Amino acid sequence: QKEVEQNSGPLSVPEGAIASLNCTYSDRGSQSFFWYRQYSGKSPELIMFIYSNGDKEDGRFTAQLNKASQYVSLLIRDSQPSDSATYLCAVNIGNQGGKLIFGQGTELSVKP
Amino acid sequence: EPEVTQTPSHQVTQMGQEVILRCVPISNHLYFYWYRQILGQKVEFLVSFYNNEISEKSEIFDDQFSVERPDGSNFTLKIRSTKLEDSAMYFCASSELGVAGELFFGEGSRLTVL
User: Fold this and answer.
1) Is the pLDDT of residue B30 over 70?
2) B95 contacts A102? CB cut-off 8 A
3) What is the pLDDT of residue A57?
4) Rounded distance, CA B12 to CA B76, Å?
5) What is the DSSP annotation of B31-82?
6) Which residue in B41, B99, B105 is closest to A96 by CB distance?
7) Nearest residue in A to B40, CA atom
8) pLDDT digits (tens, 9 = 90+) for A1-24
């Protein structure tokens, strides 16, 4: 059973701080990794994707991938109350159909 | 910006009834998916569809479920005889590239089975 694990939280950070979200995955054949944000009652919204080991930065967001340790993380700098949401880690295990396996999500709360 | 659209946004049905959920994927995308999310739980894969056929399906996607692309734009999910446990948010998604590509999700169809 291919699994993606996240701490469900809630993770609470003050406004302006760095929020760090972590995810581990079980399948070493996983090829691509995605972070989605989901507001309550809404659909997942893609924030970032990463394919190679190392860091990838996009504005206030940085995704980090370590395939040897099978973890991927998301850092949110200068956190804002509008960042409060559930963050979903999703992994593509390289199958032809391109399906993603999702973690259960980490709830982030940014306090003003 | 192109988006995936889904209808209806909410459907209430009686147990045992058939339900069809509709999706219009992004026009140049080639891979289509249905996911579901039971309240408070993970987003779960149901089925992927490429080149007019199912490319993969999960254990959830049993004989009660079917998908179809009846024309060049719509992608539908049919549940033949709904059960209480089918109550969930159903998300359609599409991707341009499949294996390495990002999935873009529609706003979802909330199904409530009474």
Assistant:
1) yes
2) no
3) 96
4) 17
5) EEEEEEE-TTS-EEEEEEEETTEEEEE-TT--TTEEEE--SSS-EEEEESS-
6) B99
7) A104
8) 678 999 888 999 999 999 999 999
What is the pLDDT, as a whole number, of residue B71?
85
CA of B44, closest CA in chain A: separation in Å?
A: 7
Mutate to test the interface with B, among A43, A47, A52 (most CBs of B within 10 A): A43
**Chain A residues with CB inside 8 Å of B50's CB?**
96-97
- Per DSSP bridges, beta strands B109-113 and B10-13 are parallel
Burial class of residue B47 (count of CB atoms within 10 Å of its CB; 0-12, 13-18, 19+): buried
Q: Which of residues 92-111 of B touch A (CB under 8 A)?
A: 95, 97-108
Q: What is the pLDDT of residue B103?
A: 87
Q: What is the pLDDT of residue A49?
A: 92
Q: What CA dihedral angle connects A64, A42, B52 and A32, to 10 degrees? A: 0
Asked if A51's CB is within 8 angstroms of B55's CB, the reply is: no
Tokens representing A2 are: 């291919």
CA distances from B106 to A10, A112, B28, B34, B96 (A): 26, 31, 15, 10, 15
pLDDT confidence of residue A31: 85
Lookup: tokens for B31:
């891979």
